[in-house]
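Input (structure):
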């Protein structure tokens, strides 16, 4: 029998995948690309709304990332035999240049600044199911990074 408490598990799975090095965009780590886009827009916070398929950034390149995580959310809900109508909101917030927090930054990295990523799923009863994770990253710079072998450029 599905329970809305399972939304905590789904939130954890989505946010852990979101910060993973396997979350790439055009062959580069999506978190670094988000950091660069936030920095260029004069902000340190990026918000992705998975239910509305929207972002606080004007960059179109993040639509692919939003679509990927919306599909993941739908798949995880289906796996838990839950209906998408139970989810009213699902917001991922990436906050960059954060203070070091031992709860989220276990190991200090010499590369990059601390960031915190939060996912909040609001259910149809108004309850919030949130998870926070953290790490270290720097803004995307193709001169300092190696593009993933998974990336294949479309050729016309």
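Output (sequence):
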């Amino acid at each position: 029998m599905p329970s809305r408490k399972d939304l905590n598990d789904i939130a954890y799975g989505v946010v852990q995948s979101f910060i993973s090095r396997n979350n790439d965009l055009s062959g580069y780590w999506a978190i670094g690309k988000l950091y660069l886009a936030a920095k260029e827009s004069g902000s340190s916070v990026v918000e992705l709304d998975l239910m509305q398929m929207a972002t606080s950034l004007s960059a179109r390149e993040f639509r692919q990332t939003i679509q990927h995580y919306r599909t993941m959310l739908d798949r995880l809900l289906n796996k838990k035999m839950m209906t998408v109508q139970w989810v009213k909101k699902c917001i991922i917030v990436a906050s960059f240049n954060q203070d070091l927090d031992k709860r989220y930054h276990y190991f200090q990295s010499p590369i990059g600044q601390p960031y915190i990523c939060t996912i909040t799923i609001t259910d149809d009863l108004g309850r919030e199911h949130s998870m926070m994770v953290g790490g270290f990253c720097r803004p995307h710079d193709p001169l300092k990074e190696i593009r993933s072998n998974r990336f294949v450029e479309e050729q016309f």
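Notes: The chain has one domain: 6-137. Helices lie at 6-19, 30-40, 63-79.
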